Amino acid sequence: MSNPVPALPVPAEPIAHRYVGKVAFITGAARGQGRAEAVRLAAEGADIIALDLCADLPTTTYAGATPEDLAETVAQVEKLDRRIIPIQADIRDYDTLEAGLKAAVADLGRLDVVIANAGMTSANRAWEIDAEHWRTTIDINLTGAFHTAKAAIPIMIEQATGGAIVFTSSVAGLVGLPFLADYARPSTASPGWPRPWPTSWPSTVSGSTACTPTEC
After folding, report:
1. Which pTM does this prediction carry?
2. Is 38:29 a contact under the CB 8 Å cutoff?
3. Catalytic site residues?
4. pLDDT digit string (tens) for 120-133?
5. pLDDT digits (tens, 9 = 90+) for 132-169
6. Which domain holds residue 80?
7. Sheet hosting strand 164-168, strand order edge to edge
8. Are the beta carbons of 83 and 48 closer than 8 angstroms?
9. How many other CB atoms are there within 10 angstroms of residue 78's CB atom?
10. Which residues have C-beta within 8 Å of that of residue 49, sequence separation ≥ 6?
11. DSSP letters of the chain?
């Protein structure tokens, strides 16, 4: 299992509990940044839909998240007296992702926040990246984020109560970092990616943005 996320204090009023009555969908939620996002939003009052692959990937040299990691995310959210629905699925599989999200939204009643956080990385010199590694990185980090938004947006449009979508990017998309050519490609796309989405959806969906953590 991954290291436990430290307890997060709920901020003082009036900014505390900003997500009471809201539901957040987070991919890559079994550990690390995704778990921290789930716990933070739950501390603010949100119910959570937490998706993760919970498996190793053949193209990475580090262990993937596990079902036990996802169960720990569930436990930490429930400790805050919030509801959480875990989904073990691959974001590359659009049909499974969409079905899982629809079922969870039917159970929790709505969808307000989407965080496309799931991702992976491998390291190699650009000209030594083989086709399998390239495809896996692009399919997860770029196409997976597209699948996440594609599944969520129709729900949010039909709901017509606003909401937001956040694409997790990386500082690797802003500056040149060694050995990350495949990882940097979707990271470069992500900061600009939120711009076209709102141009084609109704004003009842609030907007989309990207964040670029310095350690991603």
Report:
1. 0.80
2. yes
3. 183
4. 777 666 656 778 88
5. 888 888 899 889 999 999 999 999 989 988 888 888 87
6. 23-211
7. 84-88, 47-52, 23-27, 113-116, 164-168, 207-211
8. yes
9. 13
10. 23, 24, 25, 26, 84, 85, 87, 101, 104, 105, 108, 111
11. -PPPPPP-PPPPTTSTTTTTT-EEEEES-SSHHHHHHHHHHHHTT-EEEEEE--S--TT-SSPPP-HHHHHHHHHHHHHTT--EEEEE--TT-HHHHHHHHHHHHHHH----EEEE-------B-GGG--HHHHHHHHIIIIIHHHHHHHHHHHHHHHHTS--EEEEE--GGGTS--TTBHHHHHHHHHTTTTTTTGGGGS-TTS-EEEEE--TT-
Residue 150 sits in a domain whose CATH number is: 3.40.50.720
Structural domain includes residue 135: yes
Kindly state whether residue 4 falls inside one of the protein's structural domains: no
Decide if 144 is inside a domain: yes
Total of domains in the chain? 1
* Pair 106, 159: CB distance under 8 Å: no
Peptide bond into 58 cis (omega under 30): no
List 211's β-bridge partners, or say none.
Answer: 168
Does residue 136 belong to any structural domain of this protein?
yes
